[in-house]
Design a protein that fits this description.
Helix content of chain A: over 70%
Strand order of the largest sheet of chain B: 1-2
Distance between the termini of chain B: 29 Å
Largest sheet of chain A: 2 strands, antiparallel
Oligomer: heterodimer
Shape of chain A: globular
Helix content of chain B: over 70%
Number of helices of chain B: 21
Strand content of chain B: under 5%
Structural class of chain B: mainly alpha
Order of helices and strands of chain B: HHHEEHHHHHHHHHHHHHHHHHH
Mean pLDDT of chain A: 86
Strand order of the largest sheet of chain A: 1-2
Number of domains of chain A: 2
Largest sheet of chain B: 2 strands, antiparallel
Order of helices and strands of chain A: HHHEEHHHHHHHHHHHHHHHHHHH
């Protein structure tokens, strides 16, 4: 805590309070007020996360900024918050993207503005809650609750097939969550009456139970990541979501799943994790290679980036389940980097979509002639997506491949192919959309980025390059927590 | 025991009975236009009842009338909640009934008689009192369903309700008589002792138990004894559906717990395995059938079947956790169903029932606030946090995992997933679709306030569920003498 203030609570509740205020502005007559309030809320929401970064102690792996109050005493459920190096960065990332999303939706969203902005602010607070919670029921409440605003966002402001997509999104993720709930309750009884995640980390669990718990967690987290074969909701949801929704989905929602593996599956069931690591790696490699090939075949820009996200998240899950420091740190850096890159790509597509109302690659061509500034930004993000050295994506992917080589050369080899496929689908997309002659009348009428869009893009560009060139500040924060986690995972938790 | 000591535990019921008779007569003198007076009188009666119930509360368990009647914490809590529920029912129904010419003294008198029946059921400690309360409740409800005399569908529903209800009562009576034959008593405590000491005629006991459980299942409306539920919910005027679907569930819970736990604890192994089958069948059929409904009242009927199945899981688990969670679930369910049916009535107009799914289309554009409240209610029914429905499911699941039936918990959550679909569909209709009609939604400030409180209450209890959970657990613990 800094100056005795509950920092994490503020990062959770401030956006939520602003969300309610924005909602209270009512219908579209008050849209300017709603936008302004949302901007203030999101910027403040980001500013209050900075003390977490500034006051963070990189030398320890224990939880920091801890808050602990009784909540439902009957079940020993507590309002228990705290962050370590892993979760702290995601709170920052989330609050940062909330600002981006609010600015990105500034003019684009015209109907039910207050509800749109409020949904994002509410979701922002809930995602911070997911990362900050150290009580598993508190975690679960935030984890489930954040589905609701996303459900509304996709369903109301999404594309033509939005209802199918949002239903699929909700029910898929709910399936996993419910199984996780049963696992949490089981663990509660095993620990003798505690829902604290840190207590779950200590309790001994027999092998069969570990495997079942691992599977329950797997359903919850793999759906969110998403891992092959439970990834099919993602392309639908991404394609139909409005730009802001896609950005939050790619940058945060997917990370929540991987975070779950780190916080729950691996430390709580280390023996099952080792036992099933082969399966996890196989699924990750299928995601990397097969989904990469699928991405190559897409004709819809958003779908292409969505599949590319799944492929990149394959790196993350592989990095986690090879159980060494390179892999895990690489996975975490990849998660953050992918947040920036995929978020930026969805924003780029959003920029085009707002002007042309088409996501079809074939409708474009020669955009560079009309939108040179845009073409330059898009180029940077496309390069980052294909893992070019000097961009943020390179650091994580490189470290994961390094980690994989130590375990098995062929893992690294298969994963390495993504550098080729990734470059292929991204650059081919770029070529078809940006280069060439002006394809048609609509492209002819395109206008380049306005100041608001340039602002967003530059922010992201700075971060992508900055993280690629100098990742040390991030990896320093991760270091202690990752090492601690690895030690933890290496210890068997079978009862003696 | 002298007469006065006997009368104190039943003073609330006596007051209620006196007031019902008074209202019945007073109402004859009033013209149709001054029915509001009757309405206020009824609300005052409910207030008076609750004051008396609180005032006569005594610590521990008090028996009256030769152990036929019991006053304990569980009964007092459930009675208080019944008064609250009944009062809400009346507020929600007032406008709806006025527009349909059903806002008559008979309605209110029957409602109070039903309440009296429920109170007797909640406090009964003897098969005869239990049956008396049950019949008082049921007969009042049959009549209420048939109150709309010119509606063929309501009359049909009333017939169906009556015939099947009578059958269920018959089953219960038959079961009771067998237990009487096996144990030699109709008093729950004596029956329990007799079973624990060993009964000669085991098969008679088993038969009796089967009949009792079937009768209870009929009254609770769980599969395979659920046939009447959708038809009655659908056919009855919405105000009556609201009444049938909400408050009596509390009484049904008390009724079931009194018989199975207080009376037949010794046979727990037998009845809990029967309940497992009933619970799973209810969750399966209720959830699947609800998906296919286009009529909202029918859909909620199937959803009730599911919820009652889920509640049974708590009873199966047993112990303070199990019974406490079942009670909590029932209370939460009552709040949610009050809100949901209240919303249907609030959206209705003269000559128009807002009871199909399509009537909820685009509600967010017509009234964002009502859509938000309905969304909270639906999320709660689906068990999504941070609404209270989640904690209801959570506490039942926790109880069931504690007993080692983890597989049952998994089955339950998988069916809840199916259930989530049709609740989400309503949110989808309200938020994603365009409205079919732009008629302004007219409602009184009292109903508007109540529905807001109801919806926000579901949210607030979801943020702070601890108190209500503890009340349920403590009352179950004190009343059933569990440690």
């Amino acid at each position: 805590m800094i100056f005795g203030l509950p920092v994490i609570s503020i990062t959770i509740w401030l956006p939520i309070i602003f969300g309610i205020l924005v909602l209270a502005t009512g219908d579209d007559k008050n849209a300017p007020l709603a936008r302004l309030l949302a901007l203030v809320g999101s910027v403040l929401g980001f500013l209050v996360t900075l003390p977490l970064y500034i006051g963070f102690d990189t030398t320890t792996s224990s939880m920091q900024f801890v808050e602990h109050h009784g909540w439902i005493t009957r079940f020993n459920i507590n309002y228990y918050l705290g962050v370590d190096g892993i979760s702290m960065l995601f709170i920052l990332l989330n609050s940062f993207f909330t600002v981006i999303v609010v600015i990105a939706g500034w003019r684009v969203i015209e109907k039910r503005v207050s509800q749109y902005m409020a949904a994002f602010l509410l979701m922002s607070g809930m995602i911070n809650g997911v990362f900050g919670a150290l009580d598993s029921i508190l975690f679960y409440v935030f984890w489930e609750a954040m589905l609701v605003p996303m459900f509304i966002i996709i369903g109301v402001w999404g594309g033509p097939n939005r209802i199918y997509a949002t239903m699929k999104f909700f029910l898929y993720t709910l399936l996993g969550s419910l199984l996780m709930l049963v696992a949490l309750i089981y663990l509660y009884n095993l620990t003798g009456g505690s829902f604290s995640i840190l207590d779950f980390h200590q309790v001994a669990i027999p092998m069969t139970a570990q495997i079942l718990i691992f599977i329950a967690f797997f359903f919850a987290f793999a759906v969110k990541v998403p891992m092959f074969p439970v990834h099919t909701w993602l392309p639908d949801a991404h394609v139909e979501a409005p730009t802001g929704g896609s950005v939050i989905l790619a940058a945060l929602m997917l990370k929540v799943g991987a975070y779950g593996f780190l916080r729950f599956s691996m430390p709580i069931t280390p023996d099952a994790s080792h036992q099933l690591a082969g399966v996890m790696i196989a699924l990750s490699l299928i995601a990397i290679v097969y989904i990469g090939l699928v991405a190559l075949m897409q004709t819809d820009m958003k779908k292409l980036v969505a599949y590319s996200s799944i492929s990149h998240m394959g790196f993350v899950t592989m990095g986690l389940f090879i159980f060494n420091a390179y892999g895990m740190e690489g996975a975490l850096l990849q998660m953050i980097s992918h947040g920036f890159v995929a978020g930026a790509l969805f924003l780029c597509i959003g920029v085009l979509y707002d002007r042309m109302h088409s996501r079809n690659i074939a409708d474009y061509g020669g955009v560079a002639n009309k939108m040179p500034v845009f073409a330059a930004f898009f180029m940077l993000f496309a390069m980052a997506n294909s893992g070019l050295p000097g961009t943020s994506a390179f650091v994580g992917e490189f470290m994961v491949i390094m980690g994989a080589i130590k375990v098995n050369f062929w893992y690294a080899f298969a994963a390495g192919t993504t550098l080729i496929f990734g470059a292929a689908y991204t650059l081919w997309l770029y070529k078809r959309v940006i280069f060439g002659k002006v394809a048609n009348q609509h492209v002819e009428e395109l206008t380049d980025l306005n100041a608001r869009e340039v602002l967003i893009m530059s922010l992201l560009a700075v971060l992508v390059i900055g993280m690629g060139v100098y990742p040390l500040p991030l990896s320093e924060i991760l270091h202690a927590s990752v090492n601690d986690l690895l030690v933890h995972v290496a210890h068997s938790k079978l009862p003696l | 025991m002298n007469l006065l000591a006997n009368l104190i535990p039943v003073s609330a019921e006596i007051f209620l009975l006196v007031m019902v008779c008074f209202i019945l007569i007073a109402d004859l003198m009033l013209t149709q236009s001054s029915k509001l007076f009757t309405y206020l009188l009824v609300q005052l009666t409910l207030l008076g009842c609750s004051i008396i119930t609180v005032g006569t509360h005594e610590h521990g368990v008090t028996y009256a009338f030769n152990n036929m009647y019991v006053d304990d914490l569980m009964s007092d809590v459930l009675k208080m909640l019944s008064y609250l529920g009944m009062s809400m029912v009346l507020v929600y129904s007032r406008q709806y009934l006025m527009l349909r010419g059903l806002f008559t003294g008979e309605f209110m008198v029957l409602a109070l008689f039903a309440l009296l029946g429920m109170n007797v059921m909640i406090s009964a400690n003897h098969f005869l009192t239990l049956y008396l309360g049950l019949e008082l409740l049921s007969l009042s409800l049959y009549a209420m369903v048939a109150l709309q005399r010119d509606s063929a569908i309501a009359t049909e529903a009333a017939m169906k309700y009556f015939v099947l209800g009578a059958l269920a009562s018959g089953l219960l009576l038959y079961g009771m008589s067998m237990l009487y034959g096996a144990t030699g008593s109709l008093e729950l405590g004596v029956i329990s002792d007799a079973i624990n000491q060993g009964v000669q005629n085991k098969s008679l006991l088993a038969f009796g138990l089967v009949f009792i459980v079937s009768g209870l299942a009929f009254k609770l409306g769980v599969v395979p004894f659920h046939m009447w539920v959708p038809d009655v919910y659908h056919g009855a005027p919405t105000a009556m559906t609201l009444l049938i679907g909400s408050v009596p569930k509390l009484a049904a819970f008390a009724f079931t717990v009194r018989i199975l736990v207080e009376g037949l604890q010794g046979l727990e192994h037998d009845w809990s395995s029967m309940l497992i089958i009933l619970a799973i069948a209810s969750m399966a059929l209720g959830n699947l059938a609800a998906i296919a409904q286009t009529n909202l009242k029918r859909m909620f009927a199937y959803s009730t079947i599911t919820h009652m199945g889920f509640m049974l899981l708590g009873l199966i688990s047993g112990g303070i956790e199990g019974y406490g969670s079942a009670m909590f679930y029932t209370v939460v369910y009552m709040l949610m169903s009050l809100g949901a049916f209240g919303m249907i009535m609030l959206l209705s107009r003269a000559g128009f029932e807002a009871d199909t799914l399509n009537d909820f289309k685009g509600l967010n554009q017509r009234s964002p606030w009502l859509a938000f409240i309905m969304m909270l209610l639906m999320l709660s029914m689906a068990g999504i946090p941070p609404t209270v429905g989640f904690y209801a499911k959570f506490s039942v699941l926790n109880a069931i995992v504690q007993t080692g039936h983890t597989w049952l918990a998994i089955v339950a959550v998988l069916f809840s997933l199916i259930g989530a679909f049709y609740y989400l569909r309503i949110i989808k209709l309200m938020y994603f679709d365009a409205p079919e009609s732009h008629e302004p939604i007219v409602y009184g400030s009292d109903t508007g306030l109540l529905i807001s409180l109801n919806g926000l209450g579901v949210l607030f209890l979801g943020l702070m569920p601890g108190t209500l959970m503890s009340i349920c657990a403590v009352s179950v613990q004190q009343s059933l003498l569990l440690y």
